[in-house]
Amino acid sequence: SSCLASQLSSPSAGSASGRHSACARLRARARQWPPRAPMAAAGDVLALSPQETSKWCVSLALCGVRGRVLRELQDQILRQHIDGATFDRMLRTNALQDLAIEELNPRLALAIRRSWTTDFAGVRLVGYNGQESYRQPPPPSDS
Known about the structure:
This protein is mainly alpha-helical. It has helices at 2-8, 16-30, 50-56, 67-79, 84-92, 106-119; strands spanning 45-47, 124-125, 134-136.
């Protein structure tokens, strides 16, 4: 769209922070995850299946993770049964390179980690147990 083109050609798009903020704005507009539901709120407890984690990766295309790298990442998530909690742990320990995806370089791994931490900031991800994914409300406060 013309709005997209103007954002990409804006003067701030040339700087690293401008590119990151433009990427975040574009992802926010194009996000299909979770379908028709708000993102998890801070304090939520969330379990994502490997399928849901792989589906989330589609949002990475707007930040430069696309094509073969994106397909291989999604494939490895499904093949190795990497749920949201495991993926989160891998990102926090810089272990994405362990997936042995040939074109997944440190710059792309950082883009993936930034995107994930933006989307799931303040959310506690728990292991997926093979049942329907769930969002558990935070425990009631003692006040």
